[in-house]
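Can anyone check this?
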Amino acid sequence: MDDGRLKEIADRLMSAAQTRRGIAPPAAEANLSAVDAYRIQMINVERSVAAGRRVVGRKVGLTSLAMQKMLGVTEPDFGHLFDDMILASDDKCERSSLLLPRVEPEIAFVLSRELRGPGIRRDDVIAATGYVTPAIEIIDTRIRDWNITLADTIADNASSARVVLGKEKTSPTAYYLASVTMTLEKNGTQVEQGVGAAVLGHPAEPVAWLANKLAEFGQTVAAGSIVMPGALCRAIDVAAGDLITARFGPLGAVSVRFV
């Protein structure tokens, strides 16, 4: 697809984020490929960096087999995390700043050294990780009614919005992360549960996939990066007034309130 058409779609997605008014799915009308969609994502990433935002990490999506099957794909996707997207546990998140937010509990990785693909494996990720911490990803869509395909979500920065990081910092070798269990609470009531193995069999696997995928674009996962490897359960809708808490056993807990 020509650059002018890609820029037009990027313009519409950025406007939707700013006005909080969803747009029609661009993939259907433009027959977007995944390659086109990543080009659109990068247009808006470069705009954001030029405006003063700082990339602090990446998110990996579609790491469960169920989600891949639903969208008819065989691998995950990725998006960028910016400094103004990061919240601390017990912070408040303004519901009015988002369109159709949902929450996903994840085990976040914070790297102590760079990961440069190709050929990155799970053990390489563990060795490069400074610590893991409980996290809640707040996903959102600039596409009307979550009516998305793979290309739509890639173009829309993998439906990213906010990341809430826990206070506990745990060595990635302290526990076998695939066996860590998680319970998700909404207003004090358990609504979901999951286990680390829900994301490609082990939470480090999506991070390895990310490093290898970024190598196709001539990029690496920088030291200090936050990497969100995917949800341990289905995404939950949230509204103003909701208190969300995710508990990850020995890794600790993380909470956020929507106001």
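Reply from J.R.: I decoded it. The chain has a mean pLDDT of 96.
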